[in-house]
Amino acid sequence: MGTDTGSANIGLDRPSLVGVAGVVGLVGLTGLVLAGAPWKVLVISWVAFAAMAGAAALGARTDGEDAVGLVWGYGLASGAMVTSAAVFLVPQAIGFDSAVGGFGVAAGLLGGYSGHTVGHRLSHREAFDSAPAQLAAHSLSAGAIIGLVYAALPGLGLLLGLSIVSHKGPAGYAAARRLRGADEPVSVLLLPSAGVGLTAIPTALLQPPSTPAVNAAIFGFAAGVFLHVAMDFLPECEVGGEVTEAAGVDADAHALLDRMRVHAVASTVAGALAVFGAWLVVA
């Protein structure tokens, strides 16, 4: 892996006003913790920002193929998210109300799929051809769900939120490489980097009705959405897939794709085991 500082600076030296505004907004909302927003949500918001912004900076300066590294980034994040949603959200939803919780999970899965599919379709239209806009929309919606979950059950630990936002790193890395290749400013990714906090912090101040049915719906929907995101991040080691396209893998590199599939399985299992190990420590 090499670096090409000159070409990388094309994307780094042009600041995006939208990105800067996102950071300013996140800094301003940080003060809401004094108004009662859970400090856990603040930590999750800034970890999400650091993960995506830091990975984006790395991706903008990286030249050459790094398929295996990208697979491990996606796989670790996906494995951690699947495990966290299944362990921390699904049992809560079913425990409050099994039927409502189950419908909530289904609604979250279908809603996440529908939003992703419609967003992908719109990306083919010139007016909506913006990966940063899609990432920002995803971050803002995910942040709202995270804030609502912690508002409904403040006793939830940090492990859930940190595992959920673990995909921000590889997402920022891949997006930065695409922007750099298109000679677009990478700093625009500061907005989706701050997006989780922009909605999570104020949403965490809400006080949703504390009834079993409402809580079941909230946790079920959250579980469904995050399970969809986790499955969407499962490394697809196929020609033309997300990972191979972002890594610039040649269509004839069948041997490399076979090795990547092994790494994909190993990385997702490792991500799941990491959450399991952390749960053993904090339980």
What topology emerges from the helices and strands here?
Blueprint: E1 2-3, H1 5-12, H2 17-30, H3 39-61, E2 62-63, H4 67-96, H5 98-122, H6 131-152, H7 158-164, H8 168-181, H9 190-203, H10 212-232, H11 242-247, H12 254-282
Antiparallel strand pairs: 1-2
Helix pairs in contact: 2-9, 3-8, 3-9, 4-5, 4-7, 4-8, 4-10, 4-12, 5-10, 6-9, 6-10
Structure description:
There is one protein chain. The protein has 283 residues and is mainly alpha-helical. The protein has one domain (2-282). The chain contains twelve helices and two strands. A two-stranded antiparallel ribbon has the order 1-2. Helix 2 runs parallel beside helix 9 (190-203) and helix 4 (67-96) packs across helix 7 (158-164). The longest helix has 30 residues, at 67-96. It is globular and about 55 Å long.
Summarize this structure as a short list of keywords or feature phrases.
283 residues; disordered N terminus; globular; two-stranded antiparallel sheet; mainly alpha
Largest sheet: 2 strands, antiparallel
Q: How much helical structure, as a percent, in the residues? A: over 70%
- Physical arrangement of strands within the biggest beta sheet: 1-2
How many structural domains are formed by the residues? 1
